[in-house]
Write a structure and sequence with these properties.
The chain is α+β, with helices and mostly antiparallel strands. It has four helices and 13 strands. This is MOSC domain-containing protein.
């Protein structure tokens, strides 16, 4: 299966889950038009409290729909948008992509991956057991965060469900995504 946009979400307010959207408009250097996390500087409340002038490396939250299948197998029912993502994908292992990967989404939009979403306590308040389910350990004991990836908008444009996603890996040394 070719990578596609499975579902789209946004919310003008800072809430854990986001509302289903028929399309999204991505704005270069800012994020999703009409979303609470849109802006040149950081918009996540916990990060604003620390330093409101830091750049917004979390303009777009992407999450692979395959995670919902995995969670269902553990008895946890989660639907697209409920974990706060803007773009739910299918057919792409987002977590395996290196930092700096460019995702060309639809006809115009380009999102560059900046890092991994670090799940917070709100995830457990939303659904008990979910925090443990989205944090795992690798063979060497390293923490694996499964709650999606974050990115910045390099080129704006409209994105719709079923849009194709093309992947461009960074040239040179490829560094794994880290918490951002």
């Amino acid at each position: 299966m070719s990578p596609i946009v499975f579902a789209l979400h946004k919310d003008h307010a800072h809430r854990f889950s986001k509302q289903l959207a028929p399309s999204l408009v991505l704005i270069k250097g800012q994020g999703i038009e009409g979303d609470a996390h849109c802006g040149v500087t950081v918009q996540h409340r916990s990060r604003v409290a620390v330093d409101p002038t830091q750049p917004n490396l979390r303009q777009v939250h992407l999450l692979q729909a395959e995670l919902f299948d995995e969670l269902a197998g553990r008895g946890l029912s989660v639907a697209p948008g409920q974990m706060g993502e803007n773009i739910t994908t299918r057919g792409i292992d987002l977590l395996s992509l290196p930092q700096g990967t460019k995702l060309m989404i639809g006809a115009e939009a380009i999102v560059e991956l900046t890092g991994l979403r670090n799940p917070c306590w709100q995830i457990e308040n939303f659904l008990p057991g979910l925090l443990t389910a989205v944090l795992d350990r690798g063979p060497e004991g390293q923490l694996i965060r499964k709650a999606g990836v974050m990115g910045v908008v390099l080129a704006g444009g409209e994105v719709k469900p079923s849009d194709q996603i093309r992947i461009e890996l960074p040239q040179g040394e490829q560094r794994p995504l880290e918490r951002v």
